[in-house]
Amino acid sequence: MKDLFSRDSKQYAKFRPTYPADLYQFVFQYVMENKNAWDCGTGNGQVAQILAQHFEQVFATDLSQKQLDEAIQLPNIQYLCCDEKHTPLAANSIDLITIGQAIHWFDLEKFYAEVRRVAKKGAIIAIWGYGLLHISPPIDELISSFYKETVGSFWDAARRHVDEAYQNIDFPFEKIPTPPFQMQFSWNLEAFSGYINTWSSVGRFIKEKGYNPVPELVISLKPFWQENEEKTIVFPIFVKLGRI
Questions:
Q1: Are 147 and 214 spatial neighbours (Cβ–Cβ below 8 Å)?
Q2: Model pLDDT for residues 84-108, shown as the tens digit of each residue
Q3: Which of 243, 145, 238, 135 is closest to 189 using CA atoms?
Q4: Sign of CA dihedral 187, 151, 10, 240
Q5: Range of the domain at 73
Q6: Is residue 56 a part of any domain in this protein?
Q7: Is residue 87 part of a domain?
Q8: Residue at 48 is within a domain
Q9: How many domains does the chain have?
Q10: Helix 189-196 to helix 214-221 angle, to the nearest 10 degrees?
Q11: How far is CA 195 from CA 14, 122, 126, in A?
Q12: Strand-strand pairing, 231-243 and 119-130
């Protein structure tokens, strides 16, 4: 698994969007026992902290110690710096496994072997991600151009799975039908640019080119977005849910 998110873990914790309550409620209804959950690729622990409200113990793993250093600490969350293929979790111990906006980075064959090792019979695995945000047609066009052209060549090849809404991600479990979900926020330009700066492609662009392309994007948006104006931001969420 590639570590592309340690470069600015504080910005990641501040600006990354959070998932809606109805997504969690949908997943939780299928879980048979609320004892142990594993959030893999936890980042700054935003999913883990929600799981902690519903499970006795949450194990939250990530490859980046810098990300884990920014995570919210709760008594029933144990953060572990390790990859998705090898964990210290006990066999047949986990009731729910979650992976939010991360599975496209994983070695799926080895990860699923680890999933089968640690999961209880009948446990639930939930993977989800979110696509490119939508605001309004003229703004969306500029963001799309930035996404595809300005930083397009700086995305890792695995990003295509996000663009394909995980449709081609292998998921060898008993599938549970899922409805569509979305995240919706009110952001000003500062919040928007803060989020764009967390893109791994932006980090790679800066490393190679020596400057940040985001301020130029923000300038191009100003005819459509006043300095202190808040706009509605919508992210489509795609989900795969299965029983192990």
A1: no
A2: 999 999 999 999 999 999 999 899 9
A3: 135
A4: positive
A5: 9-133+156-184+234-243
A6: yes
A7: yes
A8: yes
A9: 1
A10: 150
A11: 8, 37, 24
A12: antiparallel
> Whole-angstrom Cα distance, residue 35 to residue 121?
14
Measured distance CA(240)–CA(68) in Å, rounded: 25
Residue pLDDT tens, the chain, 244 long: 444 444 454 555 565 678 999 999 999 999 999 999 999 999 989 999 999 999 999 999 999 898 899 899 999 999 999 999 999 999 999 999 999 999 998 999 999 999 999 999 999 999 999 999 999 999 999 999 999 999 999 999 989 999 999 999 999 999 999 999 999 999 999 999 999 998 999 999 999 999 999 999 999 999 999 988 999 999 999 999 999 9
Tally of residues, the chain: 244
CATH code, 46: 3.40.50.150
Cβ atoms of 98 and 51 within 8 Å: the answer is yes
Q: Could you report the per-residue pLDDT of 4-47, keeping only the tens digit for each?
A: 444 454 555 565 678 999 999 999 999 999 999 999 999 989 99
Q: How far apart are CA 190 and CA 193, in angstroms?
A: 5
